[in-house]
Specification:
- The longest helix is centred in the middle third of the chain and has 23 residues.
- It is globular, with a radius of gyration of 18 Å.
- A 6-stranded parallel beta sheet has the order 1-2-3-4-5-8. The chain has a two-stranded antiparallel ribbon with strand order 6-7.
- It contains 6 helices and 10 strands.
- α1 runs parallel beside α2.
- It has 247 residues and is of the alpha/beta class.
- The chain is 32% helix and 17% strand.
Length: 247
């Protein structure tokens, strides 16, 4: 979120995996963004880790193009959000370049949110921050190799670590990401590093939400996401949110 006078935020068409779902959510946004919130939305993302869930980039890209046409005069940026590895491994290349086989070449997407979590990879906290930074740098590097420097606005779309009351998460390799407020504080140093590198970060999340339903991990097991807040439910910070000054 962009703070200060003229504060703006990012919103999204989350259900963009099918054309029908996209059209339904787009219709709702058209009503809202053309009437009430014209000046409050900085960016619009189409899809929420759609590539990670198996949607083809060349199916998603036309919806991004359509959203640019529909909302381009209202918001400053239109793009998508996905897991870091889908930008790093080439899955998202058609969205970045605008080139899909059998389709006319179009301007690529110039706004990308890259999600990266050491936790969901089951990383021990001693390696989690380094993993997070390396993953983002790999993704950003690949995007810039394709699109060129300073042509795509890239942000860290989501990152974070569960505090006390959250669940541990074990990777297929047997390493374990241990929930806990102390570990969340340790992980936040990586967030500060990314900010110091000039990359904006959306921290997941602001406040604990103990009422939330559990989410499913890649292994199918349920995980409690009610304790990921930087603040508890009483709006008390769990640890210092001030980043050190880097010379």
């Amino acid at each position: 979120m962009y703070m200060g006078l003229g504060q703006q935020t990012e919103t999204h068409v989350r259900r963009a995996d099918t054309q029908e779902a996209y059209e339904a959510e787009k219709a709702a946004l058209v009503k809202i963004l053309t009437s009430q919130y014209t000046f409050t939305v900085y960016a619009l993302t189409i899809g929420s880790e759609s590539l990670y869930r198996g949607v083809d980039a060349c199916d998603l890209f036309p919806r991004i193009v359509d959203a640019r046409s529909t909302f381009g005069s209202i918001v400053k940026r239109v793009g998508t959000v996905d897991s870091w590895n889908k930008f790093q491994d080439g899955t998202a290349d058609p969205i970045i370049t605008g080139n899909c086989d059998g389709q006319p070449s179009l301007p690529g997407t110039t706004f990308l949110l890259v999600n990266a979590f050491g936790y969901w990879q089951g990383m021990d906290i001693t390696n989690a921050t380094a993993t997070y930074l390396d993953d983002l740098q790999q993704a950003i590097g690949h995007i810039q190799d394709l699109a060129g420097l300073n042509t795509v606005e890239i942000m860290n779309g989501e990152t974070g670590w569960p505090g006390n009351g959250g669940d541990n998460h074990e990777s297929e390799k047997g390493t374990v990401a241990v929930a806990g407020t102390k570990n969340a504080e340790t992980f936040s140093t990586g967030v500060c590093t990314m900010l110091a590198m000039g990359v904006d970060v959306f921290y997941f999340e602001a406040f604990d939400e103990t009422h939330k339903e559990k989410s499913k991990a890649d292994n199918g097991e349920e995980r409690n996401e009610g304790h990921w807040g930087a603040f508890d439910e009483k709006r008390t910070p769990k640890f210092s949110l001030a980043c050190p000054t880097f010379d």
